[in-house]
Amino acid sequence: MTEEKIKKEHIATGIQVANWEKAIQASGDLLIKSGAVTTEYVKQMIRSVKEHGPYIVIGPGIALAHARPSEAVREDAISLVVLKEGVSFGNEDNDPVDLVFSFSATGSDSHLKMMEDLSRILIDEQKVEQLRQAKTAKEVYQSL
Prior knowledge:
By secondary structure, this protein is α/β, with parallel strands linked by helices. It has one domain (about 10-140): Mannitol-specific EII, Chain A (3-Layer(aba) Sandwich). Helices cover about 40% and strands about 20% of the residues. It is built from five helices and five strands, in the order E-H-H-E-E-E-E-H-H-H. A five-stranded mixed sheet has the order 1-4-5-3-2. Strand 2 and strand 3 form a beta hairpin. Helix 1 packs antiparallel against helix 2 (about 40-50). The longest helix is centred in the N-terminal third of the chain and has 15 residues, at about 20-35. It starts with 10 loop residues before the first strand and ends with a helix.
């Protein structure tokens, strides 16, 4: 994983949320805090799921929230929230979701590169389990 994209401050563990919208908001807030995106981008991610369904749930317990590159994106970045308890996104095959990645891309090339980087992590079941078991952002970061 390219460390310049996922920073320690873009990781949070033990997060408790009531639903999928709050899960995306929590993950997106990490990108807002660092200045990678504006609040509008997080709204776009949530709106995308409302309009297109839970397509962002890409595997058992894993969601990859994103929206199209826009003026609301200031830099390429990835965040991860490890939820204390999984929440339903409406994807019966892969719910509940407990790992919520959000990513922001300034263009389609960087979008594809980040998807490629993340897929390398997510196809490794042992690494995914390490992410789920991590108690601190530092543990997650070291697992990446």
